[in-house]
Write a structure and sequence with these properties.
Shape: globular
Helix content: 10-25%
Distance between the termini: 54 Å
Radius of gyration: 24 Å
Number of helices: 4
Number of strands: 7
Strand content: 25-35%
CATH topology of one domain: Mago nashi protein
Strand order of the largest sheet: 6-5-1-2-3-4-7
CATH class of one domain: Alpha Beta
Order of helices and strands: HHEEEEHEEHE
């Protein structure tokens, strides 16, 4: 009797764990869930909207002013994405437009970057920020206070963008606690 109940219970558990198999979300009564919510559609962008322009450069600054991880992505059309993260306490995210004339200056500065994996030359400042840059399919790294003269204009522009220099306006802002 006990074995029969256990076997029946195990079978019910197996059946309850099996879904429809098509991966579609189900509502409580077993019918497919409705189309994505307005919040999900807003997060993914409007239907029919063109994709963002291709990435020109990705820049990351870690450790400036505490446990921070700031990233700045510049796209080829002069739009950008800023992501500021704060050591487990969440983050802020902004889609931005750069000021007129800044993108050509950035492109010229990026063209002068060394092709090797380092932006550094000399001895870095103790406790300074660490930089990581992805450009032309490669990754360059460096530490504050030891950026090579050839790389300094690009690093200074990108570092300034994180702090708001050269930014025209924000087109969208979100945070981990306020999507």
């Amino acid at each position: 009797m006990v074995r029969t109940r256990l076997a029946t219970f195990a079978a019910l558990l197996l059946l309850a764990g099996c879904g429809g198999g098509d991966g579609a979300p189900r509502a409580a009564h077993g019918t497919p869930s409705p189309e994505p919510t307005a919040a999900a559609a807003k997060a993914n962008g409007p239907i029919g909207k063109d994709r963002p322009a291709p990435e020109l450069v990705f820049f990351q600054r870690q450790g400036a002013g505490g446990a921070t991880l700031d990233t700045f992505t510049v796209r080829r059309d002069g739009t950008a994405r800023l992501e500021k993260r704060y050591g487990g306490a969440g983050g802020r995210f902004k889609d931005l437009e750069l000021r007129r004339g800044v993108l050509p200056r950035l492109k010229a500065a990026l063209a002068r970057l060394p092709r090797s994996g380092t932006l550094e030359r000399g001895t870095p400042d103790p406790g300074g920020a660490i930089y990581l840059m992805r450009y032309r399919g490669g990754t360059l790294t460096g530490r504050q206070g030891a950026i090579s003269p050839r790389a300094r204009p690009a690093v200074e522009l990108l570092d300034g963008f994180i702090d708001g220099s050269g930014v025209k306006r924000a087109t969208r802002e979100t945070s981990t606690n306020n999507p």
